[in-house]
Amino acid sequence: MGDENTPIQEEDLEAVLRHVLGRTGFGPAARDMKKATRKVGKAFPMTRGGVADYVLGLKRKVLKAKGDELFDIHNKWVKHLLKGKTPLLDKIVLFWHDHFSVSASVVDEPEAVTLHLENHYTYALGNFKDYVKAINKDPAMMIFLNTNKNNKDIPNENYARELCELFTLGVFDLNGLENYSQDDIVQIARAFTGWKINGDGEAYLKINKHDFMAEFPGRGPKVLFDNAYGFPPGGASFTTGGEGENEIDEVVDILFAHTDSDGENTVARRTAFRLLEYFAYASPDKSVVDDVVSASSFDTTWDIEALMRAIMVHDAFYETAAEAPFSAATKKSVKWPIDYVVGAMRMTKMKGKGRELILRGGDWMPLFDHLANMGQIIGEPPSVFGWDWEEGWVSSSTLLARYEFARDIANARSQGRFKPEKLIDKELRKDPAAAADIADSVINVLGLTGQLTAAERDEVIEYLTDNGVNPILDLSNDFVRNVKLHGVFALLMQSPAFQLH
Length: 501
Hints:
There is one protein chain. The longest helix is centred in the C-terminal third of the chain and has 16 residues, at 478-493. The protein is mainly alpha-helical. Among the domains are: 10-58 and 264-318, no CATH class; 127-263, no CATH class; 420-499, no CATH class. It is 48% helix and 3% strand.
């Protein structure tokens, strides 16, 4: 099994970086590849661990996406993704945005939504237990899941349920057995009674709205997991420090001590499982999950960055890579729409115009509309469960939206924004060149080297050569440059391979 010390041969470095930068970012864009190939092997060892450390070591920038409405917040976020120099941070924030799902239109408080996004950037690669405790008091989350309406008379169970089901334990463990009971949800809801948001947008406990055991003796003691999930008879109390503000933190501490039917830490396993699904492939084996948890000590340190590093050096992370020296032993995953759009624009050096980020080609649509048609508006997940991944991204209408987006990039000629002749290898730009070489250069620009079958590559060449009639192309010719070269970029961005990681 590969690990952090697995060496990377010099002739394989570009293939490794294409895969790593593609999975942990948006691309890989040429600028990201150039910077990485300059650093790995010099400032960082030419090993899997060296590549992981390079990616994790890039300077991080917190998103500042203030705006008066979702459209503004969305567009500032997209612009940040397009310009970002630390794609891994941006990529994992999107994961947490789905994991701790909050809808901006439901919250309807722009400042709370902005703070919520900043919290994601602050904690995304930090301590997961601290992250969950921060989410407990996140104003946008409090509004979205009604914590601010949770009063002692009839405790509201919304947040308690999602805290267990979605944020930490999951309904079932990796063996398919239940992780908690309705009684546990009822008790956790009591801990969150009385929490409000003050005029400064900060969470605070309104004591006279909080459930105290003396006032509600019929509800019993505030304990969880009585004689189950690794806890002793009598369960675990979340009032060991007394009742009041500390209860919600103690609830999290108890959840993070929960063990599953194998006696393994439940939160650690579930979090690692989901991150593996996002960065590697769907439904990873339990053994892989345990490998990365053990290698990172995530079940004790809760260090997300260490867990990510363990994932990035594991064989499983490379099992979807097709380019030599890999062989795509595992089914690839479908790119999220935001990943598809940002990746395509970064690789083609396209920019959106103005406040609306209009793509100046084809239908001249704002990126907001392109993404909405593909099924994803960041900041606006469809429910508390986030988006449906994999096949959930694929339908006749959403695929058509992707194809139209690729078409509009290729049609962005009149404004001179899309200049494909400046993206391909320099030696192919001036003198007549073999169409096969131009095809391979475009394939490389779009990160598809090794990802197409021989038959698919032949189809690209046939398009460029008019079925072999013109095997040599002159890019100084307006038709060749503005029709054929633009067209081949569109063709490849519409290809099945470009929809997948």
